[in-house]
Every structure is written in structure tokens, then in C-alpha cells.
């Protein structure tokens, strides 16, 4: 039987927590950096994929096939496997510094998988815009790309902000997976401290730091969702 | 004769459903023509074909004696000359009323923002919508929204305006204000084609009425002739049903 004082000592040791907390916070800066540089790339690539998938011109059929294959393959394999494959694999083929950094390629792997997920969110948004909006725009003489840019995409993006935020919360956590191929971010730092102190409290500290970010983000997302529901609900009644 | 629009044997199917079989007609410049017919008779489809939102399977459409249905033709310049207003979902909900009207002016015609805003202001003023210029569509009544949609189509100075049941999604008390706008357009030189279930209005405003049935023009003529002395049995039957439903005084 595990005893409470043992649990407490092993997971909630105040001294160990205060000892490791500065390291953890310091390491967490790298998590934030990875998050900060992957997010814009993910959003841009995802919008481009979603637009490519929503095109209708017969000539663009090969493009559609390519992006469908891309999203299926990216989403069909665990994120961690892509991180190993790209994060270890690509630097291993003999690139020069700094291009052989697992940090870069781990982030790329994360960005590739997430762009596929986020592209699906954008696509759902694009498809949720009523067909007559497209007809109304085209009937005014707007080209299909002008229609996408001025009429479809702005409405689609507005609608998908809440689900998008959900994906961003996941991304924020999955950044820690990059630690498995080397970079010393918070999870790895917690592992180092845990080994040093022979105590699990640093992991609890890392968990607390994640929660301090993800819980406010999640609450904000819920608030956005409720607001969106109120807004569309109100206009349905009218 | 001054043919604005000529339809030659138009045919259009959706899968097995042949909606338009063989539609031929000529419409004069400045004429007001109403298309009537049972639900599903192809009024919307016909208007969408004229605006090139649908491609015809067969036949040709001529605008000022130039074929606009030719394969490989860029539809965008033609759509600028032929405006359309739909039953609903016309306006862009994420744009102010002003931007709804100016979008095509700045993006398609390449007008300056100032000039486009001026056009929008004067058009909206003409339709009594000046106060709403900075509002968003969901703040407007259905009738106001349809008036904005008409203003937006007119901003491009189209030669032909297609109105597809623009009052059928409206509460009865809002129908009048939209029909007033259409009355105002008559005689301004624009060619008006309307699909409508408002028989009284069709009778009042139209130079000619076209009754569609079974994918063809069953009967076409002056309102007096179609409504009071229909010769085709299908027209007679349709009008009897309409009168029974209280949508036209017998
Ligand atoms: N995009 C489409 N795909 C498949 N079928 C369609 C499409 N658009 C219209 N149809 C069919 O074509 C027929 C004619 O439709 P249309 O909307 O032109 O009729 P309408 O005369 O405008 O009817 P209403 O008075 O109800 O508006 C209907 O049977 C409809 O189901
Ligand atoms: Mg219709």
C-alpha cells in the first residue's frame, strides 16, 4: 500500500518544487518559442491547403489529389512518429549546421501534422458558407479567387475561430513531444531534474506551468464558442 | 426591333431531370418581362442560365446580338452587364451595407474607394437606406436587405436585371416596399426579368408575361392576354389554382 507521506514526498515536495521551478520556467521559454514560430506557419499552410481543396476548376484536379493525400497521410500517423522520422531522420542525412538541428526538424514535423489538422478545420469553415454567397459574389462579376478572398474566407475564418483555438491548445501541449528527440524544453528539463533529485515533483511543476497556459486558453475558447452560438442562434430565430 | 436578350432553344438538365427543354424568346431593351409558372417549372434555373451561373446544355443566349454562352468566354465581364437578385442570402453578412455595395465597384471595376462610396451613398439614398449605410445586414429587415441587394446589383449599371422571387422570403408587410423599388426601375431603360409568384404585381408591372411549363414557354404575351384570356390549357389550369389560393383576383 502506498502511503500518503510517500506520495507527498515523491510528487509534492515543496523544496524540490521551488528548486526546479526556475529551471522549468527557463526551459519553458523554448516551448513558447517553438509554439510561436510554428503557429503562423501552420495557419498559413493550412489556409492554402483548405483553399486548394475547395477549388473547383477541373485543371486543378492534381492539386486537389495532392492535398487530399497530404492531409490523409499527416493525420493518419501519430504525431510522435513524424517527429522521430523528420526530427531525427532529416538531420541524419548529412545536412550542414545549423540545418542539422533536431529542434528545427522537430518543429517542422509538428508544423506539418498540425497544418493538416487545421486545414480540415478551415475546410469545414469554407464549406459552411452558403452556396448562394458564392453565387451572389460571382453574379457581381467577382472572379473565383476574389470571391474566395473577399466573401468566403472571411466568413469561414470567423466561424472556425473556436475549433481553431482548440487545436492551438493541443499544439501548445504537443510542443513537449519535440523533447523526445533532444531539445531541452520543459518536459526534458523536468526529466533531468527528476533524475537529479530522484523525485517526481519537477514533473508536477511542469504540469502546473502547462495548466497555467492551457486552462485560460480553454476557458477563452469556451467563451468564444458560447458567444458564437448565441450570435448564430439569435439570427436563426429572426 | 431592338433585341436586348435572345434565347435560342435553351435546354438544361440536372441529371435525369430535364428542367428546361426548349426555351426560345426575345426580350426588347427596357422591357419588363415576368416569368410565372408552378414551383419547379424552371424559373430560377432560366435566370441563372442567363446570368451564366449555370451552363446551358443546349442552345444559345445572345446579349445585344452577341452570344454569351459560347464556350471559353470569360463570364465575368458579362455578369457585370446582367445583375441578379436572389430570393435570400444575397448580402455579405460580414460587410457593412456600404461595403456590400462598393465591393464589386472597387474590386471588379477598379473604382477608387471615394468614388465607390459616393456611388453607394447616392444609390442607397435613392432607395431610402441612407441611415443604414454603416449597419451590417443582420441589423436590417428582410425588405431593407432586398432593397440593398437591388442597389448593389444596380451599382454596376447593368443593362439587364434579373429578379428571382425577391419578395417570397419576406413578411407580407415588407413586400410593398421592395415592389416599389421595382416600379421605380421600370422605365429607367433597364431591362427587367422577374420570376415571381406575385401575380397581381406581374400583371401590373410587366410589358409581357411568360408562362413556363414542362420546360417550354407554354404561353407568352401581354399581361391582359395571359391573365384574362389564357389560351393554353396549362396556363388556364395554373391560374385557376393561383386564384383558388387567393394570390390573384379572378
Ligand atoms: N443545382 C441543382 N441541382 C439539381 N437539381 C436542381 C438544381 N437546381 C434546380 N434543380 C431542379 O430543377 C427544377 C427547377 O427548379 P427551379 O428552381 O428552376 O424552379 P422554379 O420555377 O424556380 O421553382 P420555385 O417557384 O419553387 O422557385 C426543380 O425540380 C429543382 O429540383
Ligand atoms: Mg425559383
Question: What would your notes on this structure say?
Answer:
The complex is a heterodimer of chains A (238) and B (250). Chain A has 9 helices and no strands. With 238 residues, chain A is an all-alpha fold. The longest helix of chain A is centred in the first third of the chain and has 41 residues, at 14-54. By secondary structure, chain B is α/β, with parallel strands linked by helices. Chain B has a domain at 3-88 and 160-244: Rossmann fold (3-Layer(aba) Sandwich), CATH 3.40.50.300. Chain B contains 9 helices and 10 strands. The longest helix of chain B is centred in the middle third of the chain and has 14 residues, at 113-126. The relative contact order of chain B is 0.17. Chains A and B meet through helix 6 and helix 7 of A and helix 2, helix 3 and helix 5 of B. Bound molecules: adenosine-5'-triphosphate (ATP) and magnesium ion. Magnesium ion is lined by residues 43-44, 164-165, 195 of chain B.
Highlighted features:
heterodimer, A: 238 residues, mainly alpha, MetI-like fold, 0% strand, globular, B: 250 residues, alpha/beta, Rossmann fold, 6-stranded mixed β-sheet, 4-stranded antiparallel β-sheet, 9 helices, 10 strands, 37% helix, binds adenosine-5'-triphosphate, binds magnesium ion
The outline of chain A comes out as: globular
Structural class of chain B: alpha/beta
Mean of all residue-level pLDDT scores of chain B? 92
Sheet with most strands of chain B = 6 strands, mixed
In DSSP terms (H or I, runs of 4 or more residues), the helix count of chain B works out at 9
Radius of gyration of chain B using CA atoms only: 18 Å
Q: What's the structural domain tally of chain A?
A: 1
* Estimated helix fraction of chain A: over 70%
Along the chain, the helix and strand elements of chain B come as: EEEHEEHEHHHEHEHEEHH
Architecture of the domain at 3-88 and 160-244 in chain B in CATH? 3-Layer(aba) Sandwich
Stretches with pLDDT under 50, minimum 5 residues of chain A: 234-238
Structural category of chain A = mainly alpha
Rg of chain A, rounded, reads 22 Å
Amino acid at each position: 500500500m502506498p502511503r500518503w507521506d510517500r506520495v507527498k514526498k515523491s510528487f509534492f515536495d515543496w523544496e524540490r518544487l521551488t528548486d526546479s521551478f526556475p529551471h522549468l520556467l527557463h526551459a519553458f521559454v523554448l516551448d513558447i518559442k517553438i509554439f510561436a514560430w510554428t503557429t503562423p506557419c501552420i495557419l498559413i499552410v493550412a489556409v492554402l491547403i483548405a483553399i486548394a481543396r475547395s477549388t473547383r476548376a477541373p485543371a486543378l484536379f492534381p492539386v486537389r489529389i495532392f492535398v487530399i493525400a497530404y492531409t490523409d497521410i499527416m493525420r493518419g500517423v501519430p504525431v510522435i512518429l513524424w517527429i522521430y522520422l523528420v526530427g531525427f531522420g532529416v538531420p541524419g542525412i548529412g545536412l550542414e549546421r545549423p540545418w542539422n538541428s533536431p529542434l528545427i526538424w522537430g518543429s517542422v514535423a509538428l508544423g506539418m501534422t498540425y497544418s493538416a489538422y487545421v486545414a480540415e478545420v478551415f475546410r469545414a469553415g469554407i464549406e459552411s458558407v452558403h452556396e448562394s454567397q458564392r453565387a451572389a459574389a460571382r453574379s457581381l462579376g467577382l472572379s473565383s479567387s476574389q470571391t474566395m478572398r473577399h466573401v468566403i474566407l472571411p466568413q469561414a475564418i470567423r466561424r472556425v475561430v473556436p475549433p481553431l483555438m482548440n487545436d492551438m491548445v493541443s499544439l501548445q501541449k504537443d510542443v513537449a513531444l519535440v523533447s523526445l528527440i533532444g531539445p531541452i524544453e520543459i518536459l526534458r528539463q523536468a526529466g533531468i531534474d527528476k533524475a537529479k533529485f530522484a523525485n517526481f515533483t519537477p514533473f508536477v511543476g511542469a504540469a502546473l506551468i502547462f495548466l497555467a497556459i492551457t486552462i485560460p486558453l480553454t476557458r477563452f475558447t469556451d467563451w468564444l464558442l458560447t458567444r458564437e452560438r448565441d450570435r448564430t442562434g439569435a439570427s436563426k430565430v429572426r | 426591333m431592338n433585341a436586348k436578350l435572345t434565347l435560342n432553344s435553351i435546354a438544361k438538365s440536372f441529371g435525369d431531370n430535364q428542367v428546361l427543354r426548349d426555351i426560345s424568346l426575345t426580350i426588347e431593351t427596357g422591357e419588363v418581362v415576368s416569368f410565372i409558372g408552378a414551383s419547379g417549372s424552371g424559373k430560377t434555373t432560366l435566370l441563372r442560365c442567363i446570368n451564366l451561373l449555370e451552363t446551358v446544355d443546349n442552345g444559345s443566349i445572345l446579349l445585344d446580338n452577341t452570344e454569351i454562352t459560347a464556350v471559353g468566354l470569360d463570364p465575368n465581364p458579362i455578369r457585370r452587364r446582367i445583375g441578379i437578385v436572389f430570393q435570400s442570402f444575397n448580402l455579405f453578412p460580414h460587410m457593412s451595407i456600404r461595403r456590400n455595395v462598393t465591393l464589386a465597384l472597387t474590386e471588379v471595376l477598379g473604382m477608387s474607394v471615394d468614388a465607390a462610396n459616393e456611388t453607394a451613398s447616392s444609390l442607397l439614398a435613392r432607395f431610402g437606406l441612407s441611415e443604414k449605410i454603416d449597419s451590417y445586414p443582420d441589423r436590417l429587415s428582410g425588405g431593407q436587405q432586398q432593397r440593398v441587394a437591388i442597389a448593389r446589383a444596380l451599382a454596376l449599371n447593368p443593362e439587364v436585371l434579373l429578379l428571382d422571387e425577391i419578395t417570397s422570403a419576406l413578411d407580407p408587410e415588407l413586400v410593398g416596399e421592395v415592389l416599389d423599388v421595382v416600379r421605380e426601375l421600370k422605365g429607367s431603360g433597364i431591362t427587367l426579368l422577374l420570376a415571381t409568384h406575385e401575380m397581381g404585381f406581374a400583371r401590373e408591372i410587366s410589358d409581357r408575361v411568360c408562362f413556363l411549363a414542362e420546360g417550354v414557354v407554354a404561353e407568352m404575351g401581354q399581361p391582359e392576354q395571359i391573365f384574362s384570356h389564357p389560351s393554353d390549357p396549362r396556363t388556364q389550369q395554373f391560374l385557376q389554382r393561383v386564384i383558388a389560393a387567393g394570390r390573384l383576383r379572378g
